[in-house]
């Protein structure tokens, strides 16, 4: 149950896409049609990368993970926090130095002037989810190869930058909220939900390709369908309403793990908990509460208060005792007093949140919170962050100790020299802890088995195969 540490060079970039791109097969027979690709940022950005790559591969381009072997390089950037902006600009510079022909896309792309001020020689810049525009720019600088689709087939589910056994399923773009610390709406626009029939059809294609875990993502998963006024769509001849509950029901019938991320704490989230208790979807909720003080939440333009949230969490756990909750919090937000910080610590102890990410507030260019009075000094932010970490680590350790002796159905992510590394329903890939099955090698990524927990620290668990698996 790790508490994420915020450090100056921390970004939102995932490690898995880097490894997957490096392992992507290429055809050495093709000359002048190789595209270098770098995907930075969060899972939402990752899905954008997958769509661009799918179209390029469909047209016959090779994708290579290095700058020097490419004829043109695409950098899909992140601009969510300052460290991510710095990483994106550094990556663009590295690509220019080693290749010279660079196309920039992604969230940072909305700041065209800022990019060109540092890197005036980039070929072109687009914003996020500009799939067709990026591909058209590639055409301008790297003509389409002669391509026989029967010799170089692209899978029906497209190119994925995740291991075969799990995939991100993006259900919408943009966000209708205007949280004062966030600039995502200015980058990705207002909420635009995908047709529910398209989402469900993609889920089926992914399952057919061997995916065993679907990670549902968006900027605000619980708002799915609001922009469509929860229109009734049709899928396989059956009417389905465009909302989170109906989507969860349908995904829950597909015999895959379904994990919900970025769920805004609306009242109708209560309706999802019985589905988790019935085993239709994983009993795992990723809800960014951000704070506990009602006044600070109001300054953030977030709903809720600690007392009501704790009551809801207790009610959820009464319905679904196995429920695991992941959340993120900000300490040192402008105007946060010592009493309000202590209120946040009390909330952590009362709510017993399983997985937590914590960030010290830092100004992000364009965020309205920058103009708020009473900015918290850096040394106070650091002190509060350290205290938060200590409290949550103790909570994490205690809750993980309670899992010792229990058996869990897990999915294997990798096999190392020390044994298998797996996850249960309680661990999402890359952001949560893992389950180590030491000296156990007779499995492959994507395999599932029952294990018994034998040890835990404040972050990870250790297990052995259950008796039925031996």
Structure characterization notes:
This protein is of the alpha/beta class. Helix content is 32%, strand content 21%. It contains 13 helices and 21 strands. The chain has a five-stranded parallel β-sheet with strand order 3-2-4-5-6, sandwiched between helices. α4 links the parallel β5 and β6. α11 packs parallel to α12. The relative contact order is 0.10. The N terminus is likely disordered.
Features:
470 residues, disordered N terminus, alpha/beta, 13 helices, globular, 32% helix, five-stranded mixed barrel, 21% strand, five-stranded parallel beta sheet
List the SSEs and their pairings.
Elements: E1 3-4, H1 16-22, E2 34-39, H2 43-58, E3 62-64, E4 72-77, H3 82-98, E5 102-106, H4 112-118, E6 124-125, H5 131-141, E7 166-170, E8 172-173, H6 184-188, E9 192-193, H7 196-208, E10 213-217, E11 232-235, E12 238-241, H8 244-252, E13 257-260, H9 273-277, E14 284-286, H10 294-300, H11 306-319, E15 324-331, H12 338-351, E16 355-360, H13 378-401, E17 407-416, E18 419-423, E19 435-438, E20 448-456, E21 461-465
Parallel strand pairs: 1-16, 2-3, 2-4, 4-5, 5-6, 7-10, 10-13, 14-15, 15-16, 19-21
Antiparallel strand pairs: 8-9, 11-12, 17-18, 17-20, 18-19, 20-21
Low-confidence stretches: 1-9
Shape: globular
State which percent range the strand residues make up.
Answer: 15-25%
Largest sheet: 5 strands, parallel
Summarize, please.
The protein has 470 residues and is an alpha/beta fold. It contains 13 helices and 21 strands. The chain has helices at residues 16-22, 43-58, 82-98, 112-118, 131-141, 184-188, 196-208, 244-252, 273-277, 294-300, 306-319, 338-351, 378-401; strands at 3-4, 34-39, 62-64, 72-77, 102-106, 124-125, 166-170, 172-173, 192-193, 213-217, 232-235, 238-241, 257-260, 284-286, 324-331, 355-360, 407-416, 419-423, 435-438, 448-456, 461-465.
